[in-house]
Amino acid sequence: MSKPIILVTGTNGQLGWSLQNLSIEYSHQFEFLFVTREQLDLSKPTTVANFIQQHQPKIVINCAAYTAVDKAETEQETALNINAISVGEIAKACKAIDAILITISTDYVFDGNGTTPYKINHPTNPINYYGYSKWLGEKLALENNADTIIIRTSWVYCEHGNNFVKTMLRLMKERVEVNVVNDQIGCPTYAPDLAQAIMQIILLLPKNKHRGIYHFSNTGNISWFNFATTIRNITELNCLVNPIPSLAFPTPAKRPTYSVMDITAIKKDFEIEITDWQISLKKCLKNLEQ
Ligand SMILES: NC(=O)c1ccc[n+]([C@@H]2O[C@H](COP(=O)([O-])OP(=O)(O)OC[C@H]3O[C@@H](n4cnc5c(N)ncnc54)[C@H](OP(=O)(O)O)[C@@H]3O)[C@@H](O)[C@H]2O)c1
Fold first, then answer.
1. Would residue 70 count as lying in a domain?
2. Mean pLDDT over all residues of the chain?
3. Is residue 242 part of a domain?
4. What is the pLDDT of residue 114?
5. Considering its fold, how many domains does the chain have in total?
């Protein structure tokens, strides 16, 4: 009997790369089809249906996204096509072949005015275009295929790609001091931990009927400044980390002040154990050192 196909978009991104590494452990059970932008360009939504129809996956994990938060303010049409319209097309195409869609969203669907972790049903109110495009992607996915799981995540990093951890490591080696904002609170997510959670969900799917919106990050809540000082302390780099207010570091896109998400629903509905952010950060830094 042929193995069920799991089609993964965003292969060369942080989460796609993490899923590729993990897929080896599940290759006896599933056939993975890792898709790049060259094979399926989500800025062209009209091409999506054919591609999915042609490959007949049982599950689609959509890790592809337009993730340049500041550039999204000016490249709105591209961000909208990739993060929203194509996600709706993927959902439609999945429904047509009875496939389940797992698509990734963001803490940026919230406005950041909260003071306690956002529950999955907390009202959304994106404050930048990236957040708006991801919010619309959520809506179109759910409208077009009830068999959809949306996983909102935050502050993603890993050994691969561009992220805060790697930028900090580079700057801390080059400079005697770095300035980091201390008035935005959130929680980091180690992409391999999210990849593991996704595979755990997939293993439970045949029987587990939970669908809809979930939140996933590592546990904890910190500022970018706390994140940077912890990176410095673990690596013992000799660099001063200065706390600065967001006002001193203006960006084209506004950032939510508070974006910690409540992760109890995913833990409960899919029996997922979630690692403390410092443990995963140590693992990543150790791997980067080697
Ligand atoms: N990074 C974060 O801090 C963060 C925070 C919250 C939520 N998220 C969400 O988490 C998910 C995974 O993020 P990530 O950090 O793995 O992102 P990433 O590293 O930026 O990777 C994004 C991937 O999307 C692909 N992509 C971009 N435009 C595309 C297009 N037109 N057609 C097809 N593929 C395209 C990229 O392809 P190329 O490799 O060819 O460029 C890349 O492989 C995304 O949904 C993102 O919105 C991320």
1. yes
2. 97
3. no
4. 95
5. 1
Ligand 1 centroid from CA 236, angstroms: 31
Tell me which of 37, 69, 81 to substitute to probe ligand 1's pocket, judged by most ligand atoms within 8 Å of the beta carbon: 37
9 CA: nearest ligand 1 atom: 34
Which mutation among 67, 110, 149, 194 tests ligand 1's pocket best, with the greatest number of atoms within 8 A of CB? Answer: 67
- Residue 50 C-alpha to ligand 1 middle, in angstroms? 22
pLDDT of 203:
97
Pairing assessment for the beta strands 222-223 and 156-157 based on DSSP bridges: unpaired
Please tell me the predicted confidence (pLDDT) of residue 237. Answer: 96
Other C-beta atoms closer than 10 Å to the C-beta of 251 total: 12
Which residues line ligand 1 at a C-beta cut-off of 6 Å?
9-16, 37, 40-43, 63-67, 82, 104, 106-107, 134, 153-156, 161
Structural domain includes residue 223: no
Find out whether 87 and 140 touch, Cβ atoms under 8 Å.
yes
Which stretches in the chain have pLDDT values below 70?
A: none
124 falls within a domain = yes
Q: Give the domain range for residue 109.
A: 5-161+189-218+261-274
Q: What is the CATH number of the domain that holds 77?
A: 3.40.50.720
Tell me the pTM.
Answer: 0.97
